[in-house]
Amino acid sequence: MMKKRAFTLVECLIALAIACFLLILTPPLISRSYVNWKEEVFLREFEQVMDTAQITAISTGQGSFVTVSGGIVELNCHGARELDKKIRFPDTMKSYSVQTYGFKPYSGNVSQFSSVTFDGQNRRYTYVFQLGEAKYHVEITEK
After folding, report:
1. Measured at the alpha carbon of residue 71, what is the angle toward residues 117 and 135, in degrees to the nearest 5?
2. Rounded CA gap, 71 and 18, in Å?
C-alpha cells in the first residue's frame, strides 16, 4: 500500500490562522496609505494654485489672490477669470487661520510675508512664503 502525501488538518488550520491574522493587519495600513495619498494630492493641487496665481499675475499684469479659509483654497485671477478655482481640503486636513496671499502684477511677488499650516492626520505641513519674492518652502513635521 502506498502512503499518500497530504496536509494534515492541523497544518491547514495553522495556515488559515496565519492568513486571517495577516488579513486583519492590512486594512489599517491600507487606510493610512489612502489618507496620506489624499493629503499629498491636495498639497500638489495647492502648489499648482499658488503657481497659477503667480504666473497669471506676471503674464496679465493684474494681481492674483489665493485665499485659504474654512476648508477651501480659492484662487482669484483678476486678469484671467477662467482660471478661478476652488479646492476643498480632504477630511483629514485642517488649517486654523484665514490667509489671503496677493501676487503683485508683473513681478508675481507675494505682497505679504506669511505662512499657512495644514494639519494632516500624521503630519503638519507649513508653507512659508518669502516677502518680495515669489518663492516658498515647505516644512514637514511628524505629529
Report:
1. 40
2. 43
Question: Tens of pLDDT along 64-118?
Answer: 999 999 899 999 998 889 999 999 999 999 998 888 888 889 888 887 767 889 9
Tell me the three cell numbers of residue 141. Answer: 513635521
Is 39 within 8 Å of 121 (Cβ atoms)?
A: yes
pTM of the model as a whole: 0.78
- CA pair distance 119, 82, nearest whole angstrom: 30
H-run or E-run covering 66: strand 64-69
Q: pLDDT tens across 29-76, in order? A: 788 888 889 999 999 999 999 999 989 999 999 999 999 998 999 999
| Cβ neighbours around 121 below 10 Å, total | 15
Cα 30 from chain centroid?
Answer: 17
CA nearest to 60, candidates 88, 84, 24: 84
> What are the residues whose beta carbons fall under 8 Å from the beta carbon of 14, sequence distance 6 or more?
none
Query: What would the grid cell of residue 33 be?
Result: 496609505
